[in-house]
Specification:
The complex is a heterodimer of chains A (150) and B (652). With 150 residues, chain A is mainly alpha-helical. In chain A, 61% of the residues lie in helices and 0% in strands. Chain B is 64% helix and 12% strand. Chain B has 652 residues and is of the alpha+beta class. Classes of the chains: A mainly alpha (150), B alpha+beta (652).
């Protein structure tokens, strides 16, 4: 957390003390909400992991304006994000696209869960086998009992 | 002079820690009672040395000793005294001294309160803590001397970063470090158990209070940081999935898993190997957090520590401690004995599911945090991993976790009746569904908040059902009161902590329904938000102790009746020449009215106004969770004393 603050200060100095410009918002609440949803998916490129909706760096302002222009022109979320993605590359997307470089990243939940389940099953089977199997002493004693019975 | 004493005390502490690391461990290995008996006095002496060093540092800040470079860089004579002190740990060097001080306090506590521990186990735990202290004291002395002198001394210091001059942030690092370092103790217990080749119920009973205490402090520390972000950063956000936030969440997730699996060790002598591994990982995550925050590997711009040597040093420590412990684990863990047998549907089974899901979430957070760096190095791909990824990737794991949280406590040990447990929860399930539908009905089509309120109702109701079940409120209502009084505090603690999570979920859901507006108003003009009328009265100059500000006065009216007067500020700190925004917040526990002042133009000002339903519940829930942890910690079983191994063996 502390580091984050320092980084913000270093990188987004104009962000402090500024809260945005009312003129940049869209008049239509539905469109403004859509623009905001889109903005939360886009990274302010000069900030540390902040979306363009959470920063007042100049670049974030420019991107916010760009997104709102596109939304006002009637484009949907996919189209606007595709447009920004084409201009700025993968780095601008806070939800990384699935590529060769991010396949394992996106697979993490499944791999972690699957791996965990596999380990639990394996250990459980072994524990059951150990519990079920007789120790050499027990086997010997059983053999003795059998002999005694016979 | 005081600075030199502090520096000397650090060096002395380092030597004492080295002796503390060597002699007791040899003593425990050779069963030499004289060497083992050295452990506690050495831990006490090291604590005195480190406390002296920390005291010297506080002194230097309190008197604004500008011959100490750390003071020059981080303090100023005009600062209020509280922030002079908090400035002592608001920087890299000072925070490391606080870190080792808390470590020494933990060592002292093991020495002082651990008299019931078998002497060999106590000697080993203290020895391992000494080994950790040596590494970090060496790190401070060789790379981050907090007492470095400057000559000639400047007239005054450069001041602490203004946004750090805040009560929330003054106590955020100590809380967080109490959590991080608490996991050093469970780590030491785990390594000691591996050295001894023995883990039993008594071990579980000693580890649990430490993991509970560490977890409670970490919960509070994270909540304080999040609360601070909410009111200080002025965006109304409370969690940004930032790498540094994730670094504190990772030990919390693993620590939560550890807390639960330690119960199984204590009660059932099962999951031993797994619990030892979790104890190692929890501390590993704490160290990783320290490394990520201070090395600058995650971001190209260095902030907290801009010396790459520091990053390399901490990485070396991380590798040495965690890799060393894991190697020991691989070698010795198979000797710890197999796990007990239990049916998949049982309390143990529920706790295994808890561990599986928490660790999977931790894996997602860890991989997501490190992946941008990894992808850059491996594939040369510049990517970002932000909130949308983390929300999408952790939700499928968090949903079953929340679902299981209410059911697990109702299951019996060894073999349980799931249908019976669900039957006892039917009204809770109905409540959850009703909450979701009510949300959709009242607030419109907002799916996530509806799910959040359902989770909140499910968790709070589940905790209530658990308590009602334990006191047999329905079966034998006449004895319920007596049973409630006789219920162990650990039972109350766990139910309260689970309910606290529910309260936090309610807060998160409420924030999902937050509304805001951005308006330019002239004095006398008003705007509408969330049924309130917000009227800007005036904007004027005010003077603080070490800042000047522009302060807006906003009256909030509800149908003509004044609800509150909000006074957001834009502060200017002449030392450091920096601006901050001070949001004005009015809360009635059910909602926050939140105002931020922006640019001024044409005699008016820009205001960003937020209406945040249930916002305080996010942090209130965390406080309830920590209280639950504290209550559990005060359980008689833990407080009186853990049974000696002989007694445990006799009753077993």
């Amino acid at each position: 957390m502390t580091r984050w603050i320092f980084l913000c200060l270093l990188l987004a100095l104009p962000a402090w003390g500024a809260v945005g410009d009312p003129n940049e918002r869209l008049a239509d609440p539905a469109k403004e909400a859509l623009a905001r949803d889109i903005g939360r998916e886009l990274r302010c490129l000069v900030c540390q992991n902040q979306s363009i909706e959470d920063s007042d760096a100049q670049l974030a302002r420019d991107l916010r304006r760009l997104v709102r222009e596109r939304v006002a022109a009637g484009e949907d979320q996919t189209a606007v994000i595709r447009f920004v993605h084409e201009r700025y590359g993968d780095f601008v997307l806070l939800r990384p696209p699935v590529t060769a470089a991010t396949m394992l990243l996106w697979a993490t939940p499944v791999l972690a869960l699957g791996g965990g389940i596999a380990v639990i099953m394996f250990r459980r089977r072994r524990a059951m086998a150990e519990a079920a199997a007789l120790s050499p002493d027990e086997a010997k004693r059983l053999a003795e009992l059998d002999r005694g019975a016979a | 002079m005081i600075g030199e004493i502090g520096h000397f005390a650090l060096a002395l502490g380092c030597i004492l820690a080295l002796v503390q690391a060597i002699l007791p461990l040899i003593g425990a290995h050779r069963a030499d009672a004289r060497l083992m008996a050295l452990a506690s006095p050495l831990a006490g002496a090291q604590l005195i040395a480190i406390a002296s060093a920390f005291g010297a540092l506080l002194w230097a800040f309190a008197v604004n000793d500008t011959t100490v470079s750390n003071v020059v860089l981080n303090s100023h004579s005009q600062k209020p005294l509280l922030y002079k002190f908090s400035g002592a740990w608001g920087n890299h060097e000072g925070s490391m001294v606080l870190w080792v001080l808390i470590l020494a306090l933990c060592g002292g506590a093991v020495a002082g309160f651990g008299r019931d521990l078998p002497s060999a186990l106590q000697a080993r735990v203290i020895g391992i803590l000494g080994l950790i202290a040596v590494g970090f004291l060496g790190f401070i002395i060789f790379t981050s001397n907090p007492f470095e002198r400057v000559w000639p001394p400047p007239m005054d210091g450069q001041g602490l970063n203004p946004i750090l001059q805040d009560p929330g942030l003054a106590f955020h690092p100590p809380m967080l470090y109490l959590g991080y370092v608490g996991y050093a103790v469970t780590f030491a217990f785990a390594v000691a158990a591996l050295l001894e080749g023995r883990v039993d119920a008594a071990w579980g009973r000693w580890v649990r209070p430490w993991s509970l205490a560490a977890w409670s402090f970490l919960t509070l520390g994270i909540a304080l940081g999040s609360w601070w972000a909410y009111y200080e950063l002025g965006w109304g956000g409370y969690w940004f999935w930032d790498p540094v936030e994730n670094a504190s969440l990772l030990p919390w997730l693993i620590g939560t898993a550890l807390l639960h699996s330690a119960i199984v060790v204590e009660k059932r002598e099962s999951l031993k190997i797994w619990t030892v591994l979790l104890a190692i990982l929890a501390f590993g995550m704490s160290l990783l957090g320290t490394f990520l925050v201070r090395s600058g590997v995650l971001n190209s711009v260095h902030a907290f520590a801009n010396d790459p040597a520091r990053g390399v040093f901490i990485l070396a420590l991380l590798m040495a401690y965690v890799a060393g412990a894991l190697a020991l684990f691989a070698w010795r863990a198979p000797k710890l004995g197999g796990t007990g047998i239990f049916a998949p549907i049982s309390r143990e089974g529920g706790l295994v599911l808890n561990n599986l899901l928490l660790c999977s979430i931790a894996a997602v957070v860890l991989v997501g945090t490190l992946w941008p760096m990894f992808a850059d190095i491996m594939f040369g791909a510049k990517i970002s991993v932000g909130a949308p990824f983390f929300n999408a990737a952790t939700a499928p794991l968090a949903i079953p976790l929340v679902a299981a949280m209410a059911v697990g406590p109702l299951l019996a040990w060894k073999r349980a009746d799931l249908a019976g447990a669900l039957q006892r929860l039917w009204w809770v399930g109905a409540l959850a569904v009703a909450s979701a539908f009510l949300t959709l009905l009242v607030a419109g089509y907002h799916v996530l908040p509806a799910l959040g309120f359902a989770a909140a109702a499910w968790l709070i109701g589940g905790a209530t059902a658990d308590l009602l079940d334990r006191i047999a409120a329905f079966r034998r209502p006449s004895q319920a009161w007596n049973r409630a009084r006789g219920l162990p505090r650990a039972a109350w603690g766990s139910a309260i902590a689970h309910a606290g999570m529910g309260v936090t979920f309610a807060g998160l859901a409420g924030m999902g329904l937050a509304t805001d507006t951005l308006v330019a108003l002239k004095p006398g003009e008003a705007t509408q938000l969330a049924g309130y009328e917000w009227r800007l009265e005036r904007i004027r100059d005010v003077q603080g102790p070490n800042w000047s500000a522009r302060r807006a006065t906003v009256t909030v009216l509800d149908g003509g009746r004044v609800v509150t007067v909000l006074e957001p500020e834009k502060r200017f700190f002449p030392v450091g020449r920096m601006n901050t925004t001070e949001a004005a917040i009015h809360t009635n526990a059910l909602r926050d009215l939140y105002a931020v002042l922006g640019d001024e133009r044409d005699g008016g000002g820009v205001l960003r106004l937020h209406h945040n339903p249930l916002a305080p519940w996010i942090w209130f829930g965390a406080v309830i969770m920590a209280l639950g942890g504290g209550l559990s910690l005060s359980d008689r079983r833990i407080r009186v004393s853990a049974p000696s191994r002989k007694a445990a063996a006799a009753t077993a």
